[in-house]
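User: structure tokens for this one?
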Amino acid sequence: MARIAGIDLPRDKRIETALTYIYGIGPALAKEIIAKAEMTHNPRVRELSDADGARLREIIEADYRVEGDLRRIVNGDIRRLMEIQAYRGIRHRRGLPVRGQRTKTNARTRKGPRKTVGVKRGKK
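Assistant:
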């Protein structure tokens, strides 16, 4: 099992797909990394030689921010927005959508399950 950036890559997946298991690497970046590593084909992780794995590891460590470093930067950016009380920071704090989506309907992922609000009737 190949271990890159502290992540165990799944052995049965092709390297292009397996690299996307690393936080901060998507499909386009995975293709770019494979091109930089000068790999002619897209082997499965179990078929990687030690040299190929080491080359991929070096490229990722040298040129890209991934995993812990990237998470720290993103969380710091969100914390900064909340501290300066920017609109986006307020939305993060309240747990509402940040990028202008509607909230009258939908937005269930951010808002969580519906909370039913009952109506109290007065005495007759």
